[in-house]
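Late entry, written up from scratch paper. The run itself happened at the end of the previous shift, but nothing got recorded in the book at the time, so transcribing now.
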Amino acid sequence: MGWNHLGDLNKYETGEAIIKDLQKQGDTEVNQAFNGWMLWSFARDIKPGDYIVAKRGRTALLGWGKVAGDYRYDPAEEHAHSRAVEWMDCSEVDISSQGMLPMKTITEIKPGTLTHRMLSQHYGVNVPGWPALSTVTAPKPAPLPVARYTLADATADLFMPGAEVQRLTEILRRKKNLILQGPPGVGKTFIARRLAYLLLEEPARERTEMVQFHPSYAYEDFIQGLRPTSSGGFELREGIFVKFCRRAQLDQGRDYVFIIDEINRGNLSKIFGELMLLIERDKRGIEHEVPLATRFDDEDTFFVPKNVHLIGLMNTADRSLALVDYALRRRFAFATLCASFNQPTFEEYLLAKGAAPGLVQRIVKRMIELNQIIVSEPQLGADFVIGHSFFTPATDEKTVLDEAWYADIIEHEVHPLLAEYWLDDPGQEKVKSLVADLLA
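Output as recorded:
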């Protein structure tokens, strides 16, 4: 390091003393405090055995190694202050597409920061700590090839035309943010998974994440905030979405998909915070990085990478929810999902599961009639129809699709929902009549 005019740094007892000398000697740097503490850290804080990374500017890594000696001062050298380093890797790496390095000459790299992850990615060192290695970790073996996830895979048992699935995938790719909305039981979560895998071209669980919003969900859960520790104190932790984006930032050659179930059940303005800006499709990437409200240090910034896509799921029948505000609506494309009782693939699915043809026809006919009644009710409408998912058992369920199965669904799943819809009906006469028609 320079600042040769200060002389041997060992003569200073504190970092404040270095800062005062910088000020006395008319140092022209804007922030002498930064320089003073940086010099103190170079001479006193760094210890032999510590790991150090060399950089050029904010976009190039030059190498990494271990500090091999104590601080030295040699006035004959162009840079009088020095430390010996045992270099492990001196390959230069351009990281401009994945993030920006700290601006200061010396920065302590804290575990969990984007800088730490980038260094771990490029120099083969493990997160969260640097290993005591004399050589760089051997590269991982190439992953086994994965079968490509096709449109046929996505539409299997989906009860939605392939063209519509393809259209939603293209909307998600273009807009980067998509909300699937619809009444209960239309398969929003199921479809979201299929869209994600179709976009990723493989069922890559490591490149997808899912959370569910609720009234208590907060910025600290989603972005970053102070969280209690086992020792009784607090520590700054990144939320689930920031962690997900950090992974995607180091893998920008592949797409990632984040799914938010019940997106309108949370206080979206509070949960999203800075993301209201950063999730816009034209505000993605390192060039739009911003400091978070809570952060590790002044130079720890965050951005949403261009390879991250968001899918939100919204139940339109829940009246207790506030409307999604216009700021968020502008950033998402919306697609409304409907009940698919009239789709031939729904009938084919039930028949393949062993349901009798007569039972299948009765389910289709009576549920369509019920939904027409719900749509015609002034206090209800299309947002409250009954979805087909009530009648689609899970793949691993050993369920016999017979009359008893159908009656159980009507009595214990559909009936309670109808009772909620007509809560103000005296004696529930309307509901009783509807249920009787379904069971007849």
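Confidence is low (pLDDT under 50) at residues 130-142.
(Scratch paper discarded after transcription.)
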